[in-house]
Structures
1.
Amino acid sequence: MILDDTYHRMDTQGFFKLHIPEKLNMARLIVDYWVEHGRAQDVAIYYLDQKITYGELKDLSDRLGIALHKMGISKGDRYVIRTPNQPEYMIAFLGGQKIGAVPIPTNIMLREGEMEHIINNSESVAVITTPKYVQAVENIRPRCKTLRHTIVVGEVKGDQVSFADLLKEEAASLSFIETYRDEPAYFLYTSGTTGAPKGVVHCHRFIIGAGDPIGKFAMGLERGDICGGPTALTWMYALGHNFLFAFRWGASTAIYADERFHAERAYEFIQRYKITIFAGTPTIYRMMLAVKDAEKRFDLSSLKYYLSSGEPLLAETCREWMRRFQVKILDSMGQTEAHEFCTTQTDLKVKIGSMGKPLPGIEVAIVNEKGERLSPGELGHLALRRDHPGLFKEYFKDPQRTKEVYFPNNWYDTKDLAYMDEDGYFWYGSRSDDIMTCHGYRISPADVETALQEHKAVLESGVAGVFDPEMGEKVKAWVVLHEGYEPTPQLAKELQDHVKATIAPYKYPREIEFVNELPKTSSGKILRRELRRVEKEKLAKK
């Protein structure tokens, strides 16, 4: 049995249409639905040697919902989840939603100041964490006036609450609490590419508005699929593909247990759980390609598709991956505010380097600041229709910032620049505030980064505009090399010449600095503003 057409269907003209009921609860739709439709014994979660069925997941999330309600957590209350990838994270997310509370997943790498900002901005009443990460919560607790409960998955101390004890509640006593499609279902805090983290409010309608077109066209999900990948489930990309959308379509998810990425373990993960849909990033794929003879050493025959997002997928990475593994990588464009909206879909011809086409049912366009559509080939603002049901509701307690992301004619501005070709495929340019001006030319850092990374010596690169006394602004590149390559002036010159030969010569980096790593957000995106900041501080000291 595959998902029925209660909430989506193709109309008589072949257009994908969504029906989102007024009364809707995300957790009940993606877990309880399958139990009620005879699939209680289907495996929902694979984790280490554990198998958790949909029936067991319903029971566990019901128990937690009851316990949280008895603790005084009620509809509309926010609570923070700070755990690694593990089943308790999913149970915590779903259990709160069932009583109308609003989970806020956060990355374990966040520092105390960032956690304090999130808890206070969201007015969260509880944090669910583990012994390894609880001390940071205790340190900031006196400064978080709304925080009443610290719940720990593991050994507890003092007035901390045991997560395991909460699961001892009687599941059958869960009270039914009505939630609606436009009510908050969860928050995510942006990873900070454009300033302080913002609370992105998503509603229950998200699970159909985003989950149905993505699950059907970008993932091709069906019963028996096993989704998984090595990225944190707190990142929107993985939250959808490896959790919410997998359950929405009655598939399974395998949880990657290591907190740090290891290329060989990623292959072992695919082989062990017979992953069919693997979600990674371009950097992950480049690192996996560095594993010699991986296609011979590991059984990857279960895979149907590899998915990619987070940064542009380099043409060379895509070609080499398909040559060695004979399976397509489907690239995509998405945001915390909307998840994916433009993808190389399962039945779509791959144009290497493109982010694909808009998903059926989601209207996407390239517009100017007046909200007017631009012609194919013109670089402009990548925008979505404001009424897209997978789009966020607001930035929490920040109406001005919410207002600023909308253009006339009902367009949401992603703050990314892109263009559309004659065939309707979209191509990424850069963040709108990352564009550099050198000798009067407008230059996208993504163009230069892509050219650099096509060189065999380059593992990663970051590009930004920096001050120059003669040019005003010049293009500078920060480069991480593959093992076996030495950072020398000769190599820097070779890379500059390579860029000149690959793209328009005026775009080449006037300066190259070799580094061991690049500043990134918790979701792996390069922080170009941090590169600019560090460079500005260096110049100020001269």
Note: The two ends are 68 Å apart (CA to CA).
2.
Amino acid sequence: MSVSPSPTQKRAPLNPLKVLLPYMWPVKKNRLRFLFALSCFLLVGARLANLYPPLLFKEIVDNLSIKSQGEALLVTSFFMILGYTFTRFLSQLTSGLKDATFSPVTQNAMHRIALEVFCKLHRLGLRFHLDRKMGGTGRALERGIKGIETFMRFTIFMLAPSFVEITAACALLWHLYGFTMAAIAVVTLSLYITFTVLYSQWRLKVVRKLAEIDSGAGGHVVESLLQYESVKYFGNEAAEAKRYDTWLSRYEKTAIHTQWTLSVLDIVQGLIIAVGLSAALILTARQMSLHTITVGDFVLVNTLLLQLFVPLWSLGFAYREVKLALINMDEMFDLMNEAEEIQDAPDAHDLPRGTRGLAFEDVCFSYHSERPILKNLTFTVEPGQTVAIVGPSGAGKSTLLKLLLRFYDVCGGRILVGGHDVRALTQASLRAAVGVVPQDTVLFNESIFFNIAYAREGATREEVEEAARGANIHERIMSFPQGYDALVGERGLKLSGGEKQRIAIARALLKKPDIYFFDEATSSLDSHTEKEIQKNLDMLASITTTIIVAHRLSTVVGAHKILVLDAGQIVEEGTHASLLEHKGLYASLWQKQQHEKKVEETLA
């Protein structure tokens, strides 16, 4: 039985080619496979064609160096020059065609991987998202996708073809000028590549540290801006700037160190190339002095070696970029390999629509083993029944929703919806059956229409307006200059708390689920608006199953059953009247709230 790796376990090192090949060579897309093969052919052809211009240039130089230039030699030189420039152009042409043909392959691979990671993030459990900073996760995805593009560009278009060209050039030097000349080129190239790889490997920890600090700084910016109101409430602009300055100072120090190590790399690389080129040219000059080669040969050796060393210069840069890309890709693929805490069972089935009853049977749950939240909780909600859950803060009321929707799985016992264990249902069908008005309403930075219609894809304007009327928000929306097209701002900050809550209620009404779950649904509303909406909610509760989590007890007096939750256990159960007669915790909370209400009315 295989065990999914936990987030703390180290997985095997990333094999980028193995991971990326299925995306670059998609099984069902023959066009992309053809373009990939064509671009590889053009790539190799372009690199091999690069060796021909230096040979032509040698012949041109030898022709032009003949003292007695005749008309025939001039004509020959003229055609050689045309051939030389044409082969240069041909190399550029094949390179351009290669880029054009490979672009659809690259973009499609990036598209598919980005979508796959995005969907994976939505499949990961709530615990994962609460434990991580979303700014850092977003940056990891962004850098990972760019890393894929960098890896493919440098590995497929630079490193691999450079080795093909280097091998062919060394063979050509051996053939034309003997073993010693080829050996000088091979030794120079080997020293350069060995030093670059070993030194860059050592630099890897510096580059990785820089990437981690960059993620931390980016995550802090996102988090601080998301908490804009909190920053302003407590006047902590200076404190936030100080925290960000700490990140920037770390980044500055690490970036300077990184640049110093890069400068050392460039200097040593330049020294190796200078020594190798000097040795080759000295050997060529000696052969010229012995009249065994011509001036054109001297030019050929110099041109050919420089032509090799130019991509070699970029080889060091390419290697560094590839290593950095691998770091970024590794971070992104860590997200893809993250274990999914909540998954559909292999034999999971859809919840039949119209299912309205639910039950909690001996449910135990804790976020951490040392702090239990729910303890052997048992209660039943009959179809069409309205059940209110009340109790002091921290009693575990909102946790019930997270368990019902399987954001977490119970530690013990089970939750049934229509007689089906929620763990035996598909998550999609379970969540489609439940309409939620959360305590903290967070909206998309889109139009009001988008935010209400988000509950049901394809909802018409009339349906959205009907839901808004049910939430007593339609008239307010129409008073805005742009009406339903008005943007709500980041997290809905352009709207008041009551307006956001009414939009959340409208969204739940539009969904038309089988079960409604209202988590402090009217806590941000004034008393008049609350009464208007309460009428609609009462009418809704009369025809469907409704669970109401409430702090204000006045909103639940009409419930069929009230459950009083304290320290994760039901301590009282009954109707409003029976609980008052019992004179327990509910009666105490009721009396306290009534007293607070009288004090507020007196002060008003």
Note: Strands lie at 358-368, 371-381, 386-390, 412-417, 420-421, 434-437, 515-519, 545-549, 561-566, 569-574.
